[in-house]
Amino acid sequence: MLSKNQFVSPNQQLDTSYAEVVINIPLNRVFHYNIPPGLKENLTTGMRVKIPFSNKIVTGICVGFANTPLPYTMKDIISVLDTAPLIDNGMLQVTQWLSSHYCCGWGEAIYAVIPPVVRSRVKEKWNIFIKGADHIPMLDHTTLSEIKTRAPKQARALEILREFSGEISAKELSRISGCQMQGLRQLEKKGLIIVKRKLLEAENPPVDIALLQQHLTFTQEQQDAFDKINKKLTQPMPGVILLHGITGSGKTEIYLQTMSKVIGQNRKVIFLVPEISLTSQTIERIRARFNHVAVLHSHLLGTFHHSQWNDIKENKIDIVIGARSSIFAPLKNIGLIILDEEHENTYKQENAPRYHARDIAILRATYENALVILGSATPSLESYYRASCGDYEKIVLPKRIGDRQLPSVEIVDMREEVCKRKRYRIISQRLEYYMNQTLARNEQVILFLNRRGFAPYIHCKRCGFVLKCHQCDIPVTFHKKLHITLCHYCHAEATPPESCPDCLASHINYRGFGTEKIEDEIIAKFPHYKIIRMDSDSMRVRGAHEKALTAFERGEIQILLGTQMIAKGLDFPNVTLVGVISADTVLNLPDFRASERTFQLISQVAGRTGRGPKGGRVVVQSFNPQHYSITYAAAHDYDGFAEKELGYRKPLNYPPFGKLTRIVFRSPNEEKVKEKASLVANTLKEMVKANGNCLEILGPSPTPLTKINNMFRWHLLLKAQNYDSIHHTLQGIADMLKSSKGVQAMVDVDPYMML
Ligand code: ADP
Ligand code: ZN
Fold it and tell me: In terms of Cα–Cα distance, which of 618, 431, 436 is closest to 526?
């Protein structure tokens, strides 16, 4: 798929008569402009220009030059905005591929690659920080509830500061509390908070070389894997390695020593992680071993740091660590790209350009003749399949370091649990029994549930009414701590009703369970132990996550309860019990990857235990205890699962065999969206009939979440043997996919979200 000569390289400056310019719009088209004589010397590709464009003046990016005059009069470029290119030719090619593969505008792709802070050139050195006044923990109830009724957002900000005793940047406090600077100033006047202006410290102070840690001595398996990697590294086109190593098999040590080798050859490394804030242990291990490391916190701050971007550009950095967008870091001379936990969905971007970091990694590596290592204990079936076809070299680490055993996994049939006990309890008898034993031995417990909030349904026991979001056709979740109902799709908040909005009876019932409810239950059942809940509600403040994990590591907390936040990466030898509260949350999703995700989640969570000499045990609760994704995960049988799942997908031609593309139509008008989806589907079906195209059109149908944010949604799926036929087809209907009559269309090549 990713051959080098497939790409048209942007025209070099052979003749600079006309500039080719792209704009940040969802249209894959290049526009031509005259370059007035005064600007000619100043303009190269990758610079921004001001141009007249349909009666407006807009900013575009120069992507090349044309030397043959075009058969129409061209307008002049007004001015050149940069003195140096924001993006080099290599990355221009990457963005061109992005736009053609993922069907978005070239300009859109370029803007996705250059972080906003670099474009706007704000050098934000100063920042405002907020701290709670010393007496907020003691604030009496009346003062607080007074603020709560008058200014709920201010009260929220105070509650956050009370929960978190450190300093928070004002920007972040505003973001998570909804309280603007003006409100914060009022709190300052009342003496409730302290506002400080501070110079931003460098995020990653260089480590003293003398303090850098030594490499560990490899085990035989690690050494064998490393030798194979080394052999690849010496090849002119190293390609891709799939490192399939079970949890605790020592993959990270192999990454570290491979990085060392590559840096020793004066080449650079990109290390991608699913999410920066959830991978602190791995990042610390890298930073303890190397100097010149840049950790790009793009996810947390919304931007890269300008200075970091420059350091990378100026060759001062050896290793860039970051989430998916770091694959665009302006690093030169890359020798190695690592995707840790390559199966994670966070590598896929969910707005345009809807790229997958794995594809971009492989593309960049092809240009740079770099090696790609995809590492995982549960590789995506895409990567597993490509390795079995011989496209990637596969290296397997089937054993844990130090002959540690994988934990034994017990499946609890929750249907029996319901029959056995008068009242259904979320924590089964078996799990409770093991928890008691584990805690009594001074060991620690991790509990996993993939659902936050207190209860996912608010309903009336008398008339059956279910409370839904007023903007989305989706039940809202009750969040008890904040005493709100929250829509998990559009984030709309409301006050929970006292009585049924429909029949007015006061029979409001909270059904189902989320992490908040489990927390209450655990506190009631295990009053002598400390529990911490980790989900995006309790961990909103930057740094809270690290703080909680440190307390858990020190043994100050015995029970860690959390969402997918705790599923990966954690390495605590004293954790000897893991409980999966419900294996069914993902399994029941209407998505062809539901089984794969369930298998991955259980395997990853199970991998958090048995990491020390005391061994470990896992209890998985499910209403589908015989489902193969659960039984194979319990048996630690990845290959068994993969073969079974591939066996299901092959006859249906689902990925990794066929290629999927999803088109979603959205409109505030239900009739119009349905009409448009049907029109496009019929056109496609006719095209298929006429061309004998081996393309399958599924749908149109309403999406499983039929209305989000007041927009009705319909979708259709294209299933094809290869990308060419998808691209060709999409080109044929490009005009139909432009927004019209209030209906928007969104194209997602290789979709991961089916809702
Ligand atoms: P993975 O990334 O595959 O889950 P890790 O790299 O976290 O595995 O390794 C698991 C544990 O084994 C870690 O505590 C790590 O420090 C330790 N470890 C890894 N390699 C070695 C080695 N060669 N000698 C001793 N300990 C090792
Ligand atoms: Zn909503």
Answer: 436
104 is in an annotated binding site: no
Does 500 belong to an annotated binding site?
A: yes
* Ligand-binding site membership of 490 (annotated): yes
Query: Long-range CB contacts (< 8 A, 24+ apart) of 150-153?
Result: 151/179, 151/183, 151/186, 153/177, 153/178, 153/179, 153/180, 153/183
Q: Which domains does the chain have, with CATH numbers?
A: 4-114 (3.40.1440.60), 126-202 (no CATH), 220-403 (3.40.50.300), 408-454+513-649 (3.40.50.300), 458-507 (no CATH), 659-749 (3.30.70.600)
Measured from the Cα of 401, ligand 1's closest atom is 12
Would you say 296 and 329 are in contact if contact means Cβ atoms under 8 Å apart?
yes
Spatial separation of the C-alpha atoms in residues 4 and 608, rounded to whole Å: 41
Residue 180 CA to residue 175 CA, distance in Å, equals 8
Distance, in Å, from the CA atom of 366 to the CA atom of 339, rounded to the nearest integer, reads 15
Tokens of 486: 């929250």
- Alpha carbons 20 and 36: distance in angstroms, whole number: 14
Per-10-residue mean pLDDT for the chain, 755 residues long?
Answer: 41 63 88 89 92 91 84 85 89 92 91 76 60 71 77 84 73 82 86 74 54 87 97 94 94 96 96 84 88 74 62 91 91 96 93 93 95 97 97 95 89 88 81 96 95 88 87 87 86 86 84 90 94 84 81 94 82 92 89 94 90 89 95 96 96 93 94 93 89 84 88 92 89 85 91 88
Atom of ligand 1 nearest to the CA of 251: 3
- Quick one: DSSP state of residue 314? T
Instruction: Report CA(121)–ligand 1 centroid distance (Å).
Output: 42
Specify which residues 740 forms β-bridges with: 743
The predicted structure's pLDDT at residue 10:
46
Across the strands, what pairs with 444? 575
pLDDT at 614: 86
DSSP state of 739: -
Expressed in angstroms and rounded, the spacing between residue 455 Cα and the centre of ligand 2 is 16
Best residue for ligand 1 mutational test, from 252, 284, 343 (most atoms within 8 Å of Cβ): 252
Q: State in Å: Cα 407 to ligand 2 middle.
A: 40
Residue type for position 104: C
> What's the DSSP call for residue 741?
T
Residue 175's pLDDT is 78
Amino acid type, 404: R
Neighbours of 615 (CB within 10 A): 15
Q: How buried is 539 (Cβ within 10 angstroms: 0-12 exposed, 13-18 middle, 19+ buried)? A: buried
286 CA from centroid of ligand 1 (Å): 13
Whole-number Å distance between alpha carbons of 3 and 7: 8
Question: Chain-centre distance of CA 580, in angstroms?
Answer: 22
Q: Which ligand is nearest to the CA of 710?
A: 2
Nearest 5°: phi and psi at 315? 70, 20
Q: Under a CB-based contact definition with an 8 Å cutoff, are residues 63 and 11 in contact?
A: no
Residues with CB under 6 A from ligand 1: 216-219, 222, 245, 247-253, 401, 571
Q: Give the integer Cα–Cα distance in Å for 119 and 117.
A: 5
How many angstroms separate the CA atoms of 603 and 629, rounded? 10
**Contact assessment for residue 30 and residue 65, using Cβ atoms and an 8 Å cutoff:** no
H or E element, residue 183: helix 181-189
Q: Give the Cα separation of 398 and 388 in Å (integer).
A: 17
The one-letter code for the residue type at 130 is: I
Reduced to 3 states, what is the DSSP secondary structure of residue 217?
Answer: coil
Query: Is 463 within any annotated ligand binding site?
Result: yes
For residues 372 and 728, give the distance between their C-alpha atoms in angstroms, rounded to a whole number.
Answer: 29
Query: String of b and e for 631-658 (b: at least 16 CB within 10 Å)?
Result: bbbbebbbeebbebbbeebeeeebbbeb
The gap between the terminal CA atoms of the chain, to the nearest Å, is 28
